[in-house]
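dumping the sequnces here before i forget
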Amino acid sequence: EADIYQTPRYLVIGTGKKITLECSQTMGHDKMYWYQQDPGMELHLIHYSYGVNSTEKGDLSSESTVSRIRTEHFPLTLESARPSHTSQYLCASSGGAYSPLHFGNGTRLTVT
Amino acid sequence: RKEVEQDPGPFNVPEGATVAFNCTYSNSASQSFFWYRQDCRKEPKLLMSVYSSGNEDGRFTAQLNRASQYISLLIRDSKLSDSATYLCVVNSPNYGGSQGNLIFGKGTKLSVKP
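..and the predicted 3d for all of it:
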């Protein structure tokens, strides 16, 4: 079983607040990803990283930012949360270009 | 044409039925293929990788047809617990920089009824 952890599991926060969603993996994977998924809808890639100090935007425009200072840690930050950010955020990691993704159990964000 | 396309579903089948899902991909340079399962409001979980020669894991069989650029998943003797959304995933060398990335299909929902 993959060792990738996300916190918090659920978060309800007011509009305008700054939030950071945490994601850590203990597998030493270089590649890490953030996906956004609304209930019953498809996954959308919002950020990815190929290693330390590497971050790229995905195919879905997002107001969030990410950082990759350590291999095992890939946090996602929203500077000013809005109701439109309400969604599930899934973090994943991979051991290589042709390897499968391993997902964390997600953070379900609600912005009121 | 989208990079990865799946049967739209939903598939509603009785217990014990055999069900097959197909998925087509557009990039002929794709090298790795997977099927994931996602339960409602949960994260996707790897069901199986798909190898060129085809592979089987219990009641599940995955096949790859490179010439026609599709992969398939066959589930035999369906169980109630098989009810989930099945995601086709394909590596695309040109997606997301030089290292490529995995592209997820939209998923096919399976509902197995008693």
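DSSP finds no helices and eleven strands in chain A.
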